[in-house]
Amino acid sequence: DGSVTVRLVGNQYSFTPQCLLLPADTPVRFRGTSADVVHGFNISETNINVMLEPGYISTFKTSFKKPGDHVMPCHEFCGFGHAAMWAHVKVIDKAAFFARASTASRLSCVK
User: For 75-101, how does the pLDDT look when each residue is reduced to its tens digit (9 = 90+)?
Assistant: First the structure.
């Protein structure tokens, strides 16, 4: 259907994957959970704000209007390393994203 699905796991003290590469102007479905304790994440400059709980899959849909770089920090105190728990979200042009997706099964921010 032209949408993209992101699978995400929070784990003390990082997100997997550490960097999300996403297309602009495309429906994106997030599916996330936690491997250990409650984590939260928000994506800067958006209205995305979600809790990740062990044993539960948080699911929501969104889209990013334009290319840009965003940070995705954990906003729920999860222990000693909480302050360093964040990920990167890189939104690129839709055509460039799908060109890269045609040659790889998993995309990364690193070329």
Answer: 999 999 999 999 999 999 999 999 998
Helix and strand counts by DSSP (H, E) for the chain = 1, 9
State the pTM of this model: 0.90
Is residue 34 packed enough to be buried (19+ CB in 10 Å), middle (13-18) or exposed (0-12)?
A: buried
Whole-number Å distance between alpha carbons of 8 and 11? 10
> Cα–Cα distance between 52 and 90 in angstroms, integer?
21
DSSP state of 74: B
User: Structure tokens of 24?
Assistant: 């602009």
Whether omega before 73 lies within 30 degrees of 0, making that bond cis, reads no
